Amino acid sequence: LGYSSTLVAMDIPEEHIDESANRISEHPGVSHNYKRDHSFNLWFTLTLPPGADLEAEVAQLSAGAEARRTRILPALRVFKIGVELDLEQGANVAEKRRPSEQPPRSFTEEDLNYVRVLQQDLPLEPTPFQGWAESLGIRQRRMFVRARDFEASGVMRRFAAVIRHQKAGFAANGMICWHIPEDQLPDLGYRLASYPQVSHCYQRPAYPDWPYNVLSVVHALNRKKCEEIARRMSQEIGVDDYV
Fold it and tell me: Which residue numbers delimit the Siroheme decarboxylase NirL-like HTH domain (predicted)?
């Protein structure tokens, strides 16, 4: 749809972290704003509409947050995205499939109308899809056909209920950042993505003060479990340079 998105890491003085995080969270394009255990201690996702200057927007946020350092970390390669949590086993049970790498497609105004409708929250009523179809001037069946086409082509990642994983008992999530040799990519990236506890796994840029080029997010019942998962993954893939 022409939107640009990136992960951003900031080094914020500890005494300002709460105030800075609140300022960042006020931005309408910011989501997934977390404090992490590192000198880069504030991490968030920023999404901007077509035509916006992402670097300028990040610079403005950085100044407002009084960040000492800021690193822009767009996804260079997606190894895995999506989480389906097993409430009994305490693991992510999403199907182990590689993300679609199909090229971007052009959109008609009709396509955009479908997108605007399908991205809404589903109304809590007996026939929630009926109103959507009527707003598009079509029958439900035709709307479902287009939705399946969007999903198959990767335009729509998924259509699903959003669960607040902390309230479901998954109180901890950890972002494990790996320094993986270039000659072992993308193989080790996909291997990390194959772990059931991993919900997101990306290759991202490295910097002199941030050498970690693959980031994976794990979900578990508590912090100790997250740390155990990280140690096991490190041993099994043969990479011990991680945070």
Answer: 115-157
